Each structure stands twice: as structure tokens, then as C-alpha cells.
# Entry
Amino acid sequence: MDFKRTGIPNFTLNDSLGNFVIFSRGMTLPQDSRYGAFEGDVQQDGQTYRLRADQNYTANEAAYMEVLEVFDGDSFEGIELLSSTPESFAAELAKIGSTPVIASDGSRIWWIDERMSFTIKNGVPSTICWWQDTLKDYNEEIENIFTTGQVP
# Structure
């Protein structure tokens, strides 16, 4: 699947969480949720993706969305995920948007202006995260990364 900046097919940020509940299967409520979250399985392009969506606490809409695992052949805006190093992936992102930052511990690529990040597992981008600009916790976390150089 080729993921896009807008989210995944049939579900994007600002959609109602009701849409997410209808759209996914195997719904669970994560124990670490800060806002009211759902996790569920979504069938796309012959794969079953585990997604997480957190609710904007002032509206019934998705403020945070994450694909928790990607598969061989998956890409983001045409850039291969599991065959890219964090450095090569970040360089490709910079060609299509703002300059991303790789966390000092190598655990995440932050694409801040686009309000996205990619978790690095086993040396490759392995998750995709989108968030609204209204998520204060993420904005504070990102600011902390740039002022201290440390990932919380």
C-alpha cells in the first residue's frame, strides 16, 4: 500500500471516531490512552493493518492516527518503507516536503511541518503517525526534542 499525507483510504484525521469504529474490526481500547483511543484492524490491499486513533478531547474526531505495522512493499508517497534506512527515508521526505529530523536516539523520524512521524524499528521506518496541530502534548514533546536534543 502507498500511504499518503492525508492518512489511509477511508479514514483520515478529523474524521469522526464513529467512522473509525465502523471502518475497522477487532476494536480495543488501549490502556495507555490519554484522550480516548481505539485500536482496530483494517483490511487494505490484501493486508490487515492495525491502526490506532485517538480522539480530540474537545470534539468527536480523530486527532491522532497511527499505522502500527507496515509490510514488505508498503510505501509512503512512493517512498519504500521497509527497504529504506532512516537517513535515506528522511532525505526522500525532504524532497517532497519540509526537512525531517531523526531523533537523537534513532527511534523516530519527525516530519514536523507535516505533523507526521515514523517510528524506526530494526533500522527501518516501521510505523506511520499523523496528528492534528491541536495536540498540545505532541507539540510540547517536539519542542522538547529540539530544545534539549532528547526524546522523552
Q: What stands out?
A: The mean pLDDT is 80. The two ends are 31 Å apart (CA to CA). The chain has three helices and 14 strands.
